[in-house]
Each structure stands twice: as structure tokens, then as C-alpha cells.
User: Fold these one by one.
Assistant:
Number 1:
Amino acid sequence: MMQTLDVRVDDVGLKKCDSHNVASEFTVSATDIPYSPTSALSPLEAAQTHEDDAYPEGGLRAWLTVFGAFLALFCTFGQLNSFGTFQSWYADHQLHHLPQSTISWIGSLQLWVFFFSGGFIGRLFDAYGPHVVMIPGTAILVLSIMATSLSTQYYQYVLGQGVLFGLGVGMLFYPPLAAISTHFCKLRATALGIAFAGSGVGGVVYPIMLDRLFVQVGFDWAVRISGFIALVLCSVACATVSNRLPRVPAPYFEMKLIKDATFLLLVAGSIFISLGLFIPFFYIVEYSTSHGVNPTVAFYVLSVMNAGGIFGRLAPPMLSDSFGRFNLIVPCAFLSGLSILVVWIFADNLPTILIFAILYGFFSGAFNSLIMPCVAQISSIRTIGTRVGVLYSIISFPSLGGGPAAGALLKLNHGSYSGMIILSGTTVLAGSIFLLWARLRLQPRLSARV
């Protein structure tokens, strides 16, 4: 028989964080209580989490953490989003004797190491806080950039810019974002969106800066200058990011994950999306030049795509705090895939390519900034780092294969980009269906805020 509970929202610790899907009535059936970190607990057990759920929702430490995360993502994910600049340069200079699919393994390895390291880094954050990870991460990131400036052989680029750089990005990406989640709940998506905007700004600045520096000072010093910038900004990030919770031991793997159907659906959707999501960032420069765009202008196309991502990382997360995180991530993921299949595949001149770059940058940026708030929404505060890390570790494998698969299709189709575009668009669309499934599992009522 269905049990009826008279529950006040603040009695279960949800008043402190009401951004979850909550029913409008105070008297609800036990089967109607929406999913949240405390919804699976008894009222007594939920009350014990009240202290952890008392988020400050602001203050100097909280906003300094957001600022530090912005700087960290500017240097890390911003450069990672700019790999298309390196891919185009390598194809015309140091690695001109290698096919595009081979060169793209460097960028794919960046993504794989960055994503795969998330599981370990997330656990370290939950146990020891951000600084234990971020400080050595800064050293590794700068070392990898300097090593890239000295590289001359393909294997050296793979090790320096691929493996080592990807590890440094991971160590500076996960901790500050997880730290933000300990300071905010109602405004979590907004705060994370501001931090994620750093990657968009970096994605605008780095292609333009590197394109000019490659010509003015040469490849070696252009890369070294980016390394010095990373050293300064990441050092500031290490000094400003803080974690609100005390350090406690954390499990390497949470057995509840394999029983959490919503989390598993979120992972399944992310697997499909990550397979195709980064293909446009890798190949938009080469695609532009192959369609008659001046090579110098083609570098700016990537910057335009990343500029669209700035607004995508800001506006949808801000709206999601009012309308629901899952309610926003589903259409953003769907429209990312649709823009690839409807706009990119028909873009054959600079204006249409720029239209695609803006649209795709916006919607893909929105997905990137919303996936972490969605994970946090269905996780307890002390397992956010671990769960986010597990998600990114899993999607590291499709991310690894996306770029080379696109390059192989490009070669198989004798320079035609149609196969690559179809692969990218269909996988992102397929992933959006799983995200919709996860959202409906949380609350089948479409008008609910989830």
C-alpha cells in the first residue's frame, strides 16, 4: 500500500537547495517524492545531511573559487578546444608527411587522458581537497607545453602535447569545478557556467594569439609564451580555489552507481555525445580552407565557434537554475546534433560556415557546462567529485576514437567531409535521446522543473 508522508521541505534539508525537481504540494506520496540526494533517505537520515546542504550560495571564498576556476579553464580546456589550430599547422609544417587521421591522435589523446584521469582525480578531490591536485597539475601542464615547444618528432608531440598535457588539464579542470559545487546549490549551474565560460574565452584567445605568434616569433616561442601565461594564471587559480567541506576518506568506486539508473542513462547519453562532439573543433579549420576560405581567416572560424561557446556556457546554465538543468541540457544536446546535420553539411562558403560555428559553439558549450550540474543534482555533496570523475573516465574512450574515426572517414571518402559530419551529428543526436530518458525518469511530467 502506498505510504503518505507529510513532509516540510526544510525538514529534509531541501530548502537549502531547492533546485531539484520538487512537487508543488507539501503533502505527497512516497512514490512521488522527486529524486534528490536525500530523497532515497528516511526523514531522519535526510535531516542528518542538513549541515552539508546548508550551502553559502555566495561570499568572498565562493566567488574567488569561481574566479580561480575561470582562470584554470581558460588555460586548460581553452587550449584543448584550440587543438584545431595545431592540427592545421602540423599538417602544413612539422607533420606534413602524415595523414590527418594520424595527426588527430594527438588531440584525441589529450581528450582521452583528460577524461580518463577524472575518476582518480575526483576521488583525490573528495579525500584531500583541490590544492593537492591543482599545484602539481600546474607544474605538469607547464612542463608539457614547454616539451611541446622542443618537439620535432611525432612521438614527442604524442607524449608531450597528447599524454602529459591531457593529464595537466585534468588536474586543473575537475578540482575547481567540484569545489564550486560545495559552495553553491541554487546558483550552482550559474556559477559553473561562469567558470566554464573561461574555456570559451580561452578558445577564442588562443587560436588568434597562436596564429599570429606562429608567424611573428615562430612555433617554438609561440608555444612557450602560452606556457608562461598558463604558469601565471594557474598559480592564481591555485591560490583562489577553496573547498568548503572538510577532508574525508572517499571510496574509489561507489557501488550505488551501478544501481542508479538515472546516472547510468546520463553516462550512456554522454558516451554517444562525446564520440561526435569534438569532431567540429578538430576539423573546422581544415574544412574551411578546403571550401575556399583563406587559411588566415580559417583560424578565426575556430575562434568564432569558441566565442559562441562563451554565451552557451553562460545563458543556458543561468536559465537552468530557474527552469531545470535536465530541461535545458536535453534540447541543447539535440540542437547540437541537429546543427551538424542540417547546417554544417550544407555549409560551403564563409558566411554559412560562420553561422554553423556560432550555432554549434553555443549549443555544444551549453552541454559542456550543464553536464556537471546535472551529475551534481543527482549526487550527494560528498560524492560529486567521484561521480563526475567516473562519468568523464567512461566517456574518455569514445572521445579518444572520435577524431581518428573522423579522419579515417575523410580519407575513405577521398576528401569528402560528408561521412565525418554524419558520424558527428548522428552520435550527438542519439546521446540526446538518452538524456531525455534520464530526465523523464526523474519526472515524467514535461512541465516539471528538473
Number 2:
Amino acid sequence: MMGANSEGGRRGHPCGSGRMTGARRLVIGVALAAAMGGCRETQRVEHPLTPVRAQTAEMAPAANALRYSATIQPVAQINLAFKVGGYVAEILQVPGVGGEPRNLHEGDRVARGTVLARLQQADYQVQVNNARSQLREAEAGQVQAAAQLRDAEASRPQAVAQLASTQAALDKAQRDFTRAKNLYDTQSLTRADYDASKAALDSGQANTDAARAGVESADAKIANARAQLDAAVAKVESARQQLAGQEIPLADTALRAPLDAVVLSRKIEVGTFAQPGMVGFTVASIGTVKAVFSVPDNVVRGLSLGRLLPVTAELPGPDVERRGPITSIAPAADPQSRVFQVEVTLPNPRGDLRLGMIVTVAVGDQGAPAPYPAVPLSAVVRPGGGSTGYAVFVLEDQAGKPIARRRPVVLGDVLGNRIVVREGVRLGERVVVSGATLLADGQPVKSMPAP
């Protein structure tokens, strides 16, 4: 029985025995603790090292060889928006791959006045047709009023002639009556002859009054016809203005290029409902471009508007350098970087200076070399902890592994894409230029080779 119990004990216990001495329990406990400690040690997670790139701090270049990286930007960049609303009916078709037509899109060049897109015109065309119909009616009324004026003016000469005839007859009757009255007063004329002369005078006066009334009536008809013509002319002018006003929205259904340009973006498709003011395309001028770069205060003092600067681009062929005048100098420094933006305008007749391209601008002689090391601008960070000033991370070897150490620095002038370090970095030290914003002081890193 004891043997069975001993066998069962050995099978049910990891130590193979149901009974253990105190010393044996102590040894096994120590072994288990060591094993558990070993398990915890193997389960510890090691964080990957932060990859960084470093460069050796070199002597600042001579100031008379200043080169600045500049970005090619358009002189004019325009958002083309619809003035009226409606559904997009068509987009300019241009040859695509294999010659198949496709919609105009980014990178395509367009000439001034080209229709880039057009909205549905049916509703606007109805308004134009109605305005044209009203204009035709007004013009017909003007023609009729002009005809009435001509008729009224044609009747006046006859009335004037009638007045002249009756006036002549009246004058004769007046003279005859005066003579008859004198004869009658001297009893040299009978009463019957006197009465006949008086009747002739009264008849002549009546005829003259009637003729004068005819002339006045003709003048009134002319004035009325002229007023009607003036009203008809005003109506025609109003109708023309209404037509012109309706033709403007019709013309505005077409979105046209205001200049020779390249398309930067297209924001519409056929069938898009465009609200007034919605941007359909963004275009930029390419015939003339500008190289934009920034310089420190000690350099900007030597620059002036109109000064020609050489600009070098990595282009195929011999024409890699061009010269252009300075057309803009910022009146104030950027509040963050403390540098001044400068623009150089360059001709671009072939369009080979593409927007966003990086070029090099040579500023020229500015003085003696700076006797300090210079590092890339990307190496400069804030010192952290709410402190003011600037710092860089310098790689130090510790047990054969690179460690990033934060160094407070005193900065000097900006030289192109590099900045002079007056204090805090020695020549030959390796400075982190990529990944510095991710580091903490004393952090192990993985140094990556330069690209």
C-alpha cells in the first residue's frame, strides 16, 4: 500500500514524490522563483530605436557664394467660378492617350478665351428669346410711329399753303372794304355794294381763321407723332437693354480662360449642379513665373527692386540659367522664421519652369566667410520644457551605440538652407537633421545613411 501511495505520489507531483523534506522544498522554491524570473525577463518588450539621419557640422560657406533654394510659383493664380447656376452640360475635350478625347484636367494648357466648361443654356435661352421678341415689337412700333410722323409732317405744307392763300384773299378783301367804306361815306357807293364788300371781308377772315387752325392742327399732329416716336425709341432702347441683360447670363454659362494658363485643378464633372460662385477650375499663368525664396536681415539690406539675379534650374539643355529682376521684397520679416520673402520674376516662354519646381538663386557678394559651423535648418528644434531659445541634437557614442544629446545653441545668420551656429556645436560633430523633433535628451537612436 505504501508503494502504491508512493507511486501515485510520484505521478501526481512534479517532483515525483509525495513527501519532501524542508531542504528539498527550499531548493525547488528557489528554482521555481528563478524560472519565473527568467520568464519575466524574456517577456520584456524592447521598443524599436528611432531612426534619424545626421550630418557633420561643417564650416559655414563663404557669404560671397550665397545660394538660396527658391520655389517656382505663378505670377497669377485664378479660381474660375461660375457667375450663374445650372447643371454642367459639357467640359472642354482635349486629345488624350491614343488620341481619344477626354475631359480637360490638371496639367493641361489652355489659351486665353477658351471655353473650359458650359452649363445647360435652355432656361437662359428662353429669357433671351423673349427679350428679342419684345425688341422686335418695339422696333415695329418705332417704324409705325416714324411713318405717322412723316404723314403729319407731309400734311403741314398743304395747311401752310392754304393759310397763305386765305391770308392773301383776306388782305384783298380788307383793301376792297376800306375803299368801299370810303366811297360809301361820301355817298359814292350804294348800300348793296357796301354790304357785299363787308360780307367778302367777313368771309375772308373766317377762311383765314380756318386755315390757321388747320396749320395749328398739323403742328399738333406732328408734335403728337414726334412724342409717339420718342416713346417708341425709348421702348426700343429699353428692349435692347433688357436683351443685353438677358444675354449676359446666357454668356456666363460658359466658363472661359482669362489668360494663357495651365490647369491646376478641376472641381466639376458633367452633370454637376453649379451654384453661382462655385469654382470650376483653378488656373495659373505660365508665360511668366516667379522664384520665391527667403533671406535674413543682413542679406535683405543689400537687395533692391529691379536688381537682376541669376536663377539656375535643373533642366535639360544649355539654357539652365536665367536672369530676372527682383519684383517684390517683403516689408516685414516672417514672425516665426524671422526671414524676408523675396520674389524674382522670370520669363517662361517654353513653359519648362514648372510650378513647384525648386531652383537656385545666387544672391552674390555679401561679405567675408562666417567663422562658425553651419547646420541645416531642419536640425534646429525648441529646447523643450517651456524654455526659450533653440537647440540641436548631437549624436554621441555610448558603448558603441549612438545616443542623441540635446544641445542649447546660439544661432547666427541663415545661409540659404543652412544656419550658422555661433555656440553649442563644434566642427565635425554629427548633428541630427532628420527626426530631431521626435527625440528626447539621452535617447538611443538608429543612425540611417544619407539618401
Number 3:
Amino acid sequence: MPPPPPPPLGLRLRLSLLPPHPIAPSIRHAFCSPSVVSCHLSVRPLAQRRGGRPRPLCAARGEAEAEGFAWPDGSEEELRRLLELLPRELSRRVETHPELPALVEVVMDLGRPPLARFPSGDFLLSQRPISFDDLRHATSHSQVGDFGADNRAGISRTLHRISAIRNRKGVIVGLTCRVGRAVPGSANLLQDLVKDGGSLLLIGPPGVGKTTVIREIARMLADDYKKRVMIVDTSNEIGGDGDIPHPGIGNARRLQVPNQDMQHKVLIEAVENHMPQAIVIDEIGTKLEAMAASTIAQRGIQLVATAHGVTIENLIMNPSLEMLVGGIQSVTLGDEEANRRGVQKTVLERKGPSTFTCAAEIVSKKELRVHRSLEATVDALLAGKLPNFEIRKLGSKGSMQEVSVQKEQSHLGIYDATEFGSDSLRNARRSLDSAFSLDSAEGHIVRSDGADSSFNLYAYGNLVCT
């Protein structure tokens, strides 16, 4: 009698776009016998839209997460609406990029190949130059709003910005489609300053993330601390395009500015008509706006604003914005006072109180330099001394790392460079990293290409003495 057939063997196959966990050596040895035949499966993670059009965004999600790029809530659908402005072959190329969640902007200039910009660099989308039809397809889309006097438009209920380049006849010959995102937790490094109720000024060069941080601060003030918040939104970058603001600002209210020249008037209108406890404004750039901000701060309203610059010194040297730090005046001292201070008879001093209580210089999306007393910082800089500030960083797991930097009195400039030997610098960096558990500051160190093996350490405000 033949033996009974073996029981049916059920196999369950699980496919994942994420890298599998490593298998222990003991388990691997138990299952990897010569009788087991191994095979390689090739999976193409490409979903399909209705009508047969590829939809690689969902497939790219797994690849992006595996590469360490996360999708904020709701940002995937908003990004899809921006990519719909591009020709189909260009949008497909963008969607298949592994850094899709971190897309910065798409540049389309007439007669040139289109580019997509990512944190890792520029990505060529096509060798075919952009034509007038491509530009017309993007600007005539039903989702795109009207271009204002600043040549900016947006997509309703999103934070994206479409900026146009025109020729002398006013015809659009170039577009910059910049991606806007609401990033929860982007203002965690400044949470204590926001909670204290003082006015806060954010300084940083373009593209460093000032608008993203100030948007999160507006949400934090309205939702977490239950304050009446008014946003003066000049280019609709904080609250998004359209009449209904983006949910990224929480319960904060938004005042749109019809013309950039009227921003200072809308600031005063917000105070007089809506009784806010806090006002948020992006990009103070003119003397009239600085005067309006000073008036608001004197009325006891918490003011949160941004300004272009790299350091506090840039504001001091800017005649249009020096009022934000109290104004600068030249003072002639008497002989006795000049001898007591040990300075020349003519010195620069702060004219009056600063508009803002504290300030933060945004170095990168994960590093800030915080000045808790803006007036003390300005006074120290005018006296030729280095002020006290804090370096705050986001750790690898999102935790905040803080270093309080206390400086000696010195007449060195903020950007003076000090040379060190390679051994002494390496030991100093190792000591600092172990003491504060900070990420490596390799970007602050410039290696010499000459014959000597010395280094140049560019100290951002902190004096290092040998």
C-alpha cells in the first residue's frame, strides 16, 4: 500500500518595500539547508491610477522612507497638486526620485532643460528644453491663482509658491515652483522663548526655513497657548493661497495684504481692529514696516517676525532695519568718560529700546543661535565685544541639544578666524563632542590645501583661546 500523501504545505509570501531586519546566525543556519532552493524576486513597486496612468507617489513613499525622508501629514496630496502643473513626462520623473518628500522646487526656464532641486543637488528632468506650451500649461491651470505685483501666485489650500520671470513685454519666460510644507515640531527649539511671551525675531538667509518655523510658532501660540493670534500674510506664504487658510496655522487668523507696499498699514490695522495678543509677520524689509513693528511692540503685543540676514550685525548695519534693534547713534564722550571706558571719544551706542526681546539666527534647519537678550547683544557688538548666545541643535532622534556659550570680553570680530595645529584642534573637537553629545561640526572647519597641515576654525561668535 503506497504511503499517504504528505499534508498540503501552505506558504505565506510577504513583500515589503522596506529593508528586512537581519536574521540571527543561528536561525539562518537552521533554515539554509542544501535542500532549500533560494530564488530572487524582483518587485516593481508601481501602483496604477485610474485610466492606466502610473501613480509612482505611493511607490516612492516606501523608497523615500527607506532613505530616511518622511512624509508629513497631508503633504503627499499637496505635492501631487503641484506636480500636476508640470508636463506629464516631467512629473513622472520627479515622482520616481528617492528624495521626493524633500523636493525643494522645480525650475522651468524657456529654452532650457527643466531642473528639480533636492537637498542633495539639482536633478535634470529632461533634455528637452522648456517651451511656451509648457509654461502656458502650468500658469493656465485651474488650481493656480492670479499673479500679483510681486509675480507670485499659489495653489488654493496649499503652501506652494509659483514665482514668474517675465521679459520686457511682460510675458512669462520662466517659473520657479517652490514646495511649501507645514512641518510639525519645526519650532521646538524655540518653544521656551515663545512660551515666555517676549517678542521674537528670526534671522536667516533665504531658503533656510524661516517661514516654516514662523508658521509653526503661529500654530503653537494659537493652539498650545490659547492666544489670539493674527498673521499678516503678505505673499500668502504663511497661511497659503486662497480665502481659506492652510490648516498648518491652526486656529490663528490671517490678514492678507493686497499690495506689499501696504504691509505696514495692515500691521496697524490688525492691532486696532482685531485685538490680538500676538502678531506674526514674515519678512520685515522696509523702514515703514520696522516702524510699524516697533509701534506694535510698544503696545504690549507679542510680535514674532523674520528678517533677511545672517547675523545680528547685518541688522545693525542695515539703515532700514536698525530700528528693530533699537536704532544706532554716534555719541561723543568726554575725556574722563572715554578714559574710563578705554575707548575713543566718538562711539556708537544703541539709541533706544529694541523692538524684540530676543532673537534667533537660523544657521540651518537643525541649528540655531539664540540671543536671549537682544539689547545686550547689540550693546556688546557696538562695544566691540562678543555677546553671549546659545547654540541649539536637533539631535538625530529629534531631541534638543543646547550649549550655552559664555565669551570673554574681546575686540575681535565675530567672523575672525583662528589657526590651530591639527592635533590640538582634533583633541578640542573630541572633548566638545563628548561633553555635549553634539553632532560633528565638520561644516565649520576648513582644511588647508597648502603644504602645512593646519586647520582654520571659523568661530561663530565664540572665542576659542589657546
Number 4:
Amino acid sequence: MIHNSFESRHIGVNEKNIEQMLKAIGVGSVDELIQETIPNSILKNEALKIDKAVSEQDYLSNLKKIASKNSNFDNYIGQGYYGTITPSVIKRNVLCNPGWYTAYTPYQAEIAQGRLEALLNFQTFISDLTGMELANASLLDESTAAAESMLMFYHMRSRAQIKNNVNKFFVSDHIFLQTKDVIIARAEPLEIEIIFGDPATIKLNEEYFGGILQYPDAYGEIYDYSDFTSKAKNLDIQVSVIADIMSLVLLKSPGSWGADVVVGSTQRLGVPMGYGGPHAAFFACKESHKRFIPGRIIGVSMDVHGNPALRMALQTREQHIKRGKATSNICTAQALLAVMASMYVVYHGPKGLKSIAEIIQSKTASLKQLLIDNGFNIINENQFDTLSFREDLVSLKNHLEKNKINIGYLNDIASISIDETTTWDQLNLLANSLVKFKNSKSSVALKN
């Protein structure tokens, strides 16, 4: 056996241990044990096709070879996933610290006060930015959080709505595609009828129990949804808003214009994209919704000495309470990533966050003006970090990929999303690539 192989380094049973255990249970080999345990109808008799064992070093070298096949492009895809800068102190002391990344659910509050405080900070800044009274300690991701808001509204229907079998749920056409898919999947078992449409033109009535909007929407537009939420409220329809957490540093909070629930992702607050996940979602709502909110809430209590102490104040997973009263049975938290997001907010503070958001918005506005000046018809009138326009997408995609640039392609629309990692040099490269595609102009420069 190779000394540095996984098998020899693994802390587990050895040949002597196996022999003793087999003797104790009265079988001659592991194969015999399996034959006597697994029914023949499901037993696989063929040998598993497993390559010869390699050392950890050889394995990592092979992974590096595979990774080297990737091409590093400038990315402006957006759609809920953004480049972010993880402060080194957070990367070193939280993300790469086993004291944080191996921690499980803080059932024993007396030994988890630091983690509980970080999660309380998470809840606090989410409530502040969304304008809501209450926030949980994170959910799985943005799409499932959006679906959870739909389920919460469904279970909160009034007696009259239940009696009249009110089962329609409005979904804006302008939300991210991955969120649409999850909402559709989660609605099917409860026979919730999903109605897609434009929030500006949809005719709401008593057949709806809820609706969901995106703010800013998938194309980057920023709408004032006050009229929509007002009409919904008059019809006893609850409204959920999927919000970009960084944009809320500058924009009016959804709570200020009537949202009942606000959900979203905190990925762009210092959490690496990680090839699509995992990321910590947030779920904020009104105080009156607290008995229906999925996930768990960290609360401030008091210890036996009369000192402030933190604990899990509310838990709604079926493993914690009666299944009939549980609001969720999925893995309802991303504690490590929620901690990272809360540390990012503490690290930068209100002024730092505002500066980051303003720089993102400024770069987006500068790019928008240059594109308009060079013949592009930008669809969205208002923007935070995303610009959208119609173009020959096949030709545009081929052109930009030759310049090692990725942008978003949503239906028949191209979209560009700026984030805190985007430099002016990168933006100038993008701008020149787009202008050359449009009119073959020699070169342009953004005004910063």
C-alpha cells in the first residue's frame, strides 16, 4: 500500500479490524456479508469500474490540468450572479477557517454566541436595506426563497380564500429564468396556478392570493411598483419582491412601497460565485408573518446572570416542530455564507457600501451614454447595474467571444451587468468591442 494514498491516510478500519468484525458476525468476507444482506434482485454482481487509486498530489495535479482548459473571459452575464471582492481578512479568517466552515446548526447557544451574533448582524442589515420588520438567518438560494414566499402566501390565505379555492399566483415576466423554473416546480404539487404577465398591465382580481416582482428586473429596469402593491392590497393579494441587495443601498426599499415579503441573494456581498453556488439567500417580511416565515430567526435573550445572550428564537423546519406546522422541509440555511455576507457589511460599513454601489451605478451610466451615442437602443430607461438592448444575438455573441467577453442573453435581448470587480480598463475593452461590432469605429473611451 502506498503510504501517501487516500486509503492509508484515511482514519478508518484496517484489515485486522475488518477480520475481527467479520468473525464476530459469523461471515468469512465482506463479499459474503453483502451477498447475505442485499437481495439478489438489486445486487450488482459486476465489478465497479474504478480506476487505480492515486495519491492526493496526483489527483490535484490532474484537476489543475482540467481547470487549465477553461478560458478566462470578462463576464457581464449578471442574472443574479455577480463578481465580488472578498476582503482578505474575511477569506482568511472565515471562509478558510474550519472553526467557521465546519460549524453545524447552533443548537447549543452557550457555545455559539459568536456565530449567532454574526447571523443576527445578517438579519439586521437585511431588515434595514429591505425596509421590513423581520428577516430570517438565510435560506438556500434566491430562487428557492422566492418559491418559499409563494408557499407562505398560499398557507396564509384567509378562510374566505380557502373556501373559494383561490389558487392563482401572479409572476412577473421580468424575473430571472432560474427563479421562474423553481416557482413552477414548487407550485405543481399544491395545484397553484401560475399566471405570467406584465405588472403594469395585469388585471388582478379576487382569484389571486399572491404575486411576485423583480426589483430591479431581469433587464435592469427600475420600476415604481407602488400602484401594483396598492391594488394588490385592496384585493387581499400579498406581494413578494425579489430584490438586488446591493441596489437597495441606493434605491427606495421595497418595504417603503408596500411589499409584504422581500427575498434575494447576498452573493454579491463578498461571497464567491463558486460556479453557480452555494450562496445565502435572504427572506424578510412583516412582523405579522413571523409564524409562517421559513428557516430560523436568531433572537436576543437573557442568560441566568441577566446578561444579553443570543439563541435561535424561531425554527420552522419539520425536524424541529410538528410536521403539520412546519413551513419548510428543505435545507433552510447557508450559515457560513450568511456569516461572510454579514462580515462584508460590517467590514465596509454604510459609507463603504454606498461607495461601492455608487461606483457600480456610475460605471453603468457611463457605459450607457457611450452606447447610446454610438447607435445602441438601450431598452431600460433607468438602471442600477444592468443595461439591455436588442441586437443580432448570434453575431454579437460570436464577436464578443472572440474578444473573450461574456454578456447575458435573455430571450431576444442582450444584457450587460456591471459589478464591483469591473475595472475601467475592462469597460473600455467592452465598449470598444461593442462599438466595433455596431459601426466599425476605430476606438472610443469612457468618461469616468
